[in-house]
Amino acid sequence: MLLHAKESLRKMHSAAKSYYGGLVPSHAHSAFGLRHSLNFPNKASRHVVPWSTRSFTQFSQGGTVEQEIVIAMGSNVGDRVSTFDRALQLMKNSGVNITKHACLYETAPAYVTDQPRFLNSAVRGTTRLGPHELLKKLKEIEKNIGRTDGIRYGPRPIDLDILLYGNCQIDSDTLIVPHERIHERPFVLAPLVDLLGTSAADGIETSWHSLSKWSGGFFELWHKIGGESLIGTEGIKRVLPIGNRLLDWCERSLVMGVLNLTPDSFSDGGKFQQVEAAISQAKLLISDGADIIDIGAQSTRPFAKRLSPNEELERLVPVLDAIAKIPEMEGKLISVDTFYAEVAMEAVKRGAHMINDVSGGQLDPAILEVVAELGVPYVIMHMRGDPSTMQSEQNLRIVLDPGIGFSKKSEQNHEVIMGLDFIRREMVDRDVATVAAVTAGILNGANIIRVHNVGYGVDAAKVSDALLKVRR
Question: Which residue intervals define the domain Pterin-binding in the entry (predicted)?
Answer without folding.
Answer: 253-472
